[in-house]
Write a structure and sequence with these properties.
alpha+beta, Ybab, Chain: A, three-stranded antiparallel β-sheet, 2 helices, 54% helix, coiled coil, Nucleoid-associated protein DIW82_12940, cytoplasm, DNA-binding, DNA binding
């Protein structure tokens, strides 16, 4: 079995690293939303995962039922987080799968 060309492997690794950095920058510049209660609560996350905005429809604000509002906020945050993970997988997945071809 012939030995792999180390220069070629290094060049591929550098290209992969550049593509990963570009994908990470694209994710960081993105925003995702998650909603719950048929859109009554919306959470917007930055690509970094930081919460940028929370919007609550006034119709779900009931001082007698704070628990429901709390559940809706948690649901919207979880949906936004799921969307962020999906975005990351879409951008990074093909690149990280390609690392196997470099012998890693």
């Amino acid at each position: 079995m012939p030995q792999p060309d180390m220069n070629q492997i290094m060049a591929q690794a550098q290209q992969m690293q550049q593509k990963l950095q570009e994908a990470q920058a694209e994710i960081a510049a993105s925003t995702v939303e998650g909603t719950s209660g048929n859109g009554l609560v919306k959470v917007t996350l930055a690509g970094s995962g930081a919460v940028q905005d929370v919007t609550v429809d006034p119709s779900v604000v009931d001082p007698e039922d704070v628990e429901t509002l709390q559940d809706l906020i948690i649901g919207a945050f979880q949906a936004a987080n799921d969307n962020l993970q999906q975005l990351s997988q879409e951008k990074m997945g093909p690149l990280t799968q390609g690392l196997g071809g470099l012998g890693f």
